[in-house]
User: Fold this.
Amino acid sequence: MSTTNQEDLSKNLTEFGENKLPQETSRIQLISIIGQIEGHMLMGNQNKTTKYEHILPQLAAIEQDERIEGVIVLLNTVGGDVESGLAIAEGLASLSKPVVTVVLGGGHSIGVPIAVSGDYTFIANTATMTIHPVRLTGMVIGVPATMEYIERMQDRVVDFVVRHSKIKEKQFRELMMTVGELSQDIGSVVVGPKAVEYGLIDEVGGVGAAMKKVDELIGEDKK
Assistant:
């Protein structure tokens, strides 16, 4: 391999967490959502982050690339910026190509909408999803306006999850507002099979199951 190619691969791995974008030899594009979802403010170098400004152009490129027929999204995220996470979720849900998501470690907080954004969704048997109310960090300038903003943002999250999964709104809000399960906080931690039972996720499974499913959905699209 030439020095130039090695440098290109190294740069892509550092910037995007991928070997090549897009993967020229594959008709299935892999996207990783890992660590904390970074928003408009840069996080420290010690944090593993997923940058929304990297993911959104990938989605546009995938939509335009005729060689890519399906997408698999691998999640192990603690959550992060709400608007950026919702933007990623909306982008995935709007793709015309089959999208399969897999929660491998965690799909916490704003990772929940991303986890349910696929045409079919999986969660590993030991993976978890934390569901809790939207929080606002940083300076609070006007309390009434801020509270209204938080409520509207929370409604957006709830609406997206309910529209893209089988869970009922009442049950999702109950999980969100549960008291006593999280230390010094409200919300719920849902483990693999329980996420399927609630209707948040379609099936317990991992990467292999996701590969089979996206192939199946690609075949249905071609028919």
In short: The chain has one domain: 3-222. The mean pLDDT is 84. The chain has eight helices and eight strands. The helical segments are 3-16, 52-64, 82-94, 111-115, 143-163, 169-176, 192-198, 207-222.
